[in-house]
């Protein structure tokens, strides 16, 4: 017998119900609408992307250096937090460039860090040119999940400078405030959407994201926990999934395609100019007209500026076609599915933060992508029929 609150698939009842839905009882934990399941099938996968998180055990590098008569302000190494921390980090880096007294400033790179740095510099009165090899959609930032993850792989315990936690909190809070200013903008570059956390066992204490015996990644999310709505336990009768335990909250989502386009348009509307340029070595800085340069090259700074403290942390996403009305994320069994307006992210997270660590291979692993889609399909299987 079919439980009306459960997943309705196929057949005449589905036709009566309109689109396939996961029904959750409203009441104590009111859901505005029935939950439409993600249609996680291999034939809906339209691309697989790989990106490298620019991780530094000491945290992002923000410092000025004189190179060949120019001031280069390094601004890179944001690990798995580049989108989240972008604005606040720019507010730390850009004043170092403004302090040179230059009115014309160059930014190298048009990823999350380059775009937000460029706009921040414009707001501080500078005339800005972005020199870049790639723009969206080729940039690594274009392949991010699009979640508020301000302390994801942002540094290692004992390897960041004293006071890093205070610095991080200031950056995270400033960034958060700027992201909120993009709510309600056409195309929804930023929006708040539900997250479900599913488990086979009752939720236990927080598990550290580092396995025993290895250097520990910093975990700072609790410091800014007040910015994120509280997690709620979902009663079994309100749980629309076939997985026994569910918790839920609401989190900030970056619709990365819209966000990049919005930032590029904003930059150009304020008189900013993009120049296509591929620097092969530091010597090529001489081809840049400006004498003050913000270096926002992300992982590429490793080769370009010889910074071997940058460690690549590989992450792969299998993309499913977007589905109207599906706008939530689900975590289950080390898999994350996040339905954004510009596509549905299916991402294997691995058992801990060392997943993909020191792996510079940007070739898509198709077998892993298909396995992730199949696993996602299990999350959305019918509850009872
Ligand atoms: C799978 C995955 C998921 C992620 N999810 C999230 C998330 O949900 N939330 C979050 O906050 N962060 C997330 N991140 C992290 C985030 O994507 C990075 O921290 C961020 O993209 C770094 O941005 P960036 O601007 O420093 O670098 P990039 O995006 O790599 O930009 C570098 C720029 O420099 C240019 N450039 C490079 N070399 C040269 C050169 N030689 N000459 C000229 N130009 C050059 C490039 O063309 C590009 O424009 C994720 C990362 C991965 C891998």
Automatic annotation (TrEMBL):
<keyword id="KW-0285">Flavoprotein</keyword>
<dbReference type="InterPro" id="IPR006181">
    <property type="entry name" value="D-amino_acid_oxidase_CS"/>
</dbReference>
<dbReference type="InterPro" id="IPR023209">
    <property type="entry name" value="DAO"/>
</dbReference>
<comment type="similarity">
    <text>Belongs to the DAMOX/DASOX family.</text>
</comment>
<keyword id="KW-0560">Oxidoreductase</keyword>
<keyword id="KW-0274">FAD</keyword>
<feature type="domain" description="FAD dependent oxidoreductase">
    <location>
        <begin position="104"/>
        <end position="369"/>
    </location>
</feature>
<dbReference type="InterPro" id="IPR006076">
    <property type="entry name" value="FAD-dep_OxRdtase"/>
</dbReference>
<dbReference type="Pfam" id="PF01266">
    <property type="entry name" value="DAO"/>
</dbReference>
<protein>
    <recommendedName>
        <fullName>D-amino-acid oxidase</fullName>
        <ecNumber>1.4.3.3</ecNumber>
    </recommendedName>
</protein>
């Amino acid at each position: 017998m079919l439980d009306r609150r459960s997943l309705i698939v196929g057949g005449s009842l589905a036709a009566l119900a309109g689109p396939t839905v996961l029904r959750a009882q409203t009441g104590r934990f009111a859901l505005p609408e029935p939950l439409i399941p993600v249609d996680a099938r291999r034939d809906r996968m339209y691309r697989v992307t790989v990106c490298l998180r620019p991780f530094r055990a000491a945290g992002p590098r923000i410092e000025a250096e004189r190179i060949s008569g120019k001031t280069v302000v390094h601004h890179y190494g944001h690990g798995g937090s580049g989108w989240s921390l972008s604005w606040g980090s720019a507010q730390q880096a850009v004043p170092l460039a403004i302090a040179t007294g230059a009115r014309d400033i160059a930014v190298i790179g048009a990823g999350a860090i380059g775009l937000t740095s460029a706009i921040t510099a414009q707001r501080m009165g500078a005339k800005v040119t972005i020199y870049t090899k790639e723009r969206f959609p080729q940039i690594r930032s274009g392949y991010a999940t699009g979640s508020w993850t301000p302390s994801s792989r942002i540094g290692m315990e004992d390897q960041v400078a004293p006071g890093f936690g205070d610095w991080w909190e200031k950056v995270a809070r400033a960034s958060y405030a700027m992201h909120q200013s993009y709510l309600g903008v056409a195309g929804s570059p930023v929006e708040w959407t539900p997250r479900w956390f599913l488990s086979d066992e009752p939720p236990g204490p927080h598990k550290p994201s580092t396995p025993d015996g290895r250097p520990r990644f910093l975990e700072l999310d609790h410091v800014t926990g007040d910015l994120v709505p509280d997690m709620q336990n979902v009663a079994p009768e309100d749980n629309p999934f076939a997985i026994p335990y569910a918790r839920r909250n609401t989190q900030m989502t970056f619709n990365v395609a819209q966000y990049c386009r919005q930032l590029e348009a904003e930059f150009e509307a304020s008189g900013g100019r993009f120049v296509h340029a591929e620097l092969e070595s530091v010597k090529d800085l001489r081809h840049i007209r400006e004498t003050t340069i913000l270096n926002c090259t992300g992982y590429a700074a490793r080769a370009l500026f010889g910074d071997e403290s940058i460690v690549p942390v590989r992450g792969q996403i299998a993309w499913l076609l977007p589905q109207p009305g599906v706008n939530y994320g689900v975590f289950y069994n080390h898999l994350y599915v996040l339905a954004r307006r510009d596509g549905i992210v299916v991402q294997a997270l691995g058992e801990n933060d060392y997943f993909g660590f020191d792996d510079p291979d940007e070739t898509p692993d198709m077998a892993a992508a298909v396995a992730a889609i199949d696993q996602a399909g299990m999350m959305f299987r019918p509850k009872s029929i």
